[in-house]
């Protein structure tokens, strides 16, 4: 068992702390291995690699894709739900995703999609959804986190559509994303969801209480046309909002809205004399769950942080070990992995010194 504070992690190891998997960049071992032990270790490694290579020669991959992260499920109407997840980017050759309602597969989508609408459901009913990734050899990942959702009750003889969303605004966030915002629609009952369209194709959906979103997966130097429609529980759709055109930047800039906000860094000393850097931040508002972050320390990637449970929405925090020496100065920043699998912009860089409680 690890002590209360994070343990030192060796090469290619990971650990889970309060629902979070942390992968640390390995540090050199404090003690040299005896030559005999080192030779045995290398010999064993070569044998294992060789035996793997001598396996079947059918050309098929035996690597199973990792389970999709960041699953969100919300009711779009009394008879439909919107399922969204983060693209799997573990290096496996993912060719598609399978969506499950309970144990039954209800949808297949290609790898370039990470959201889908499930229709034909019953009003005021509870369903459980999960997603699996599939590669070109037919290997299927474990289930994503399973989420329950309850559709709203059907409204009697409601044939009146919501008013069209007004004053749609858009802003490019670097070369791969754009933020959209609009004024709330009015309905004789209530708005269940807003549907976002790129050209004539629906690309996203948010709950009726949300009037902004981040669209990711765009191409640099490209002009996009967006509209929004309001939808009520009876599946009445409003007319489309006035269109807004957004042109993404030509470079690789990720944009301010994709970066973690309100980023702070402080240090503390544990009871055993070790120093830690404590980080807090507000996750970027992506319309989905942000489950993975990359922390840079002193100009280099130091830690991959993956939230294995429910990813924080309003405020996130993390603490990691940096050494035992007082007076060491470090620079730290982080960025989030967006739902489409790309990295967002970096937070502002903070400078901290061990034995001091706040940033310089």
TrEMBL record:
Chain ranges of the Fibronectin type-III domain: 67-154, 164-251, 259-357
Polar residues: bias regions: 350-360
PROSITE patterns: FN3
Organism for this UniProt entry: Streptomyces flavofungini
Gene3D superfamilies with a match to the protein in the record: Immunoglobulins (2.60.40.10)
Disordered: annotated span: 1-30, 136-174, 340-360
Keywords carried by this UniProt record: Carbohydrate metabolism, Glycosidase, Hydrolase, Polysaccharide degradation
Protein name according to UniProt: Fibronectin type III domain-containing protein
One Pfam family from the record: fn3
Coiled-coil regions listed: none
């Amino acid at each position: 068992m690890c002590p209360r504070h994070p343990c030192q992690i060796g090469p290619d190891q990971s650990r889970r702390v309060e629902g979070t998997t942390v992968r640390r960049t390995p540090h050199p071992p404090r003690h040299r291995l005896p030559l005999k032990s080192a030779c045995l270790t290398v010999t064993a490694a070569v044998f294992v690699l060789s035996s793997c290579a001598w396996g079947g020669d059918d050309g098929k991959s035996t690597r199973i894709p990792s389970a999709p992260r960041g699953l969100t499920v919300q009711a779009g109407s009394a008879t439909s739900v919107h399922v969204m997840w983060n693209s799997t980017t573990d290096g496996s050759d993912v060719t598609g995703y399978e969506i499950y309602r309970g144990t039954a597969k209800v949808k297949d989508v290609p790898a370039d999609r990470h959201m889908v609408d499930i229709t034909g459901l019953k009003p005021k009913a509870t369903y459980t959804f999960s997603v699996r990734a599939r590669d070109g050899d037919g290997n299927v990942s474990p289930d994503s986190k399973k989420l329950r959702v309850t559709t709203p009750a059907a409204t009697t003889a409601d044939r009146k559509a919501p008013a069209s969303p007004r004053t749609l605004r858009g802003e490019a966030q670097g070369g791969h994303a754009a933020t959209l915002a609009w004024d709330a629609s009015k309905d004789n009952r209530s708005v269940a969801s807003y549907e976002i369209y790129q050209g004539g194709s629906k690309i996203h959906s948010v709950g009726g209480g949300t009037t902004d979103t981040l669209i990711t997966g765009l191409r640099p130097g490209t002009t996009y046309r967006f509209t929004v429609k309001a939808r009520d529980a009876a599946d009445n759709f409003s007319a489309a909002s006035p269109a807004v055109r957004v042109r993404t930047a030509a470079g690789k800039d990720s944009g301010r809205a994709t970066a973690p906000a309100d980023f702070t860094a402080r240090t503390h000393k544990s009871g055993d004399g070790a120093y830690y850097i404590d980080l807090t931040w507000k996750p970027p508002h992506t319309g989905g769950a942000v489950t993975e972050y990359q922390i840079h320390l002193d100009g280099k990637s130091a830690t991959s942080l993956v939230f294995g449970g429910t990813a924080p929405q309003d405020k996130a925090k993390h603490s990691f070990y940096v050494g035992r020496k007082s007076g060491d100065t470090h620079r730290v920043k982080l960025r989030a992995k967006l739902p489409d699998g790309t990295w967002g912009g970096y937070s502002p860089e903070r400078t901290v010194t061990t034995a001091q409680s706040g940033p310089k």
